Amino acid sequence: MQCMCGDIASTKTVVRKACAAELDFYECRTCARVSDGVLYVEEIEVLADAGMVAHARLAFNELTSPKAQQLLELAKRKLEAQGRINEEMRLEIAQNAFDF
Ligand SMILES: [Zn+2]
Asked: Residues within 5 Å of ion ligand 1 by Cβ?
């Protein structure tokens, strides 16, 4: 990924084993700018940086085991909800297809 300074930012990973957490982000070797952090707990994405707001990095820095589990629980519920919506959309599209 290209950094704002024009150099190439490469991916980095930091791990916090006690929380089963991993943070992936881009870091520029020239200006040290860090961006696009994504936080994983038990290999499920739980938080991502959004633009200039470093949600994932801040959460990782202050992560505790209970907090990690809480984020994981929320992420799983979100995935389940998305799964239900996808299934409803699929059914609706299938039903509409028969109306043509
Ligand atoms: Zn840079």
From this structure: 3, 5, 7, 28, 30-31, 33
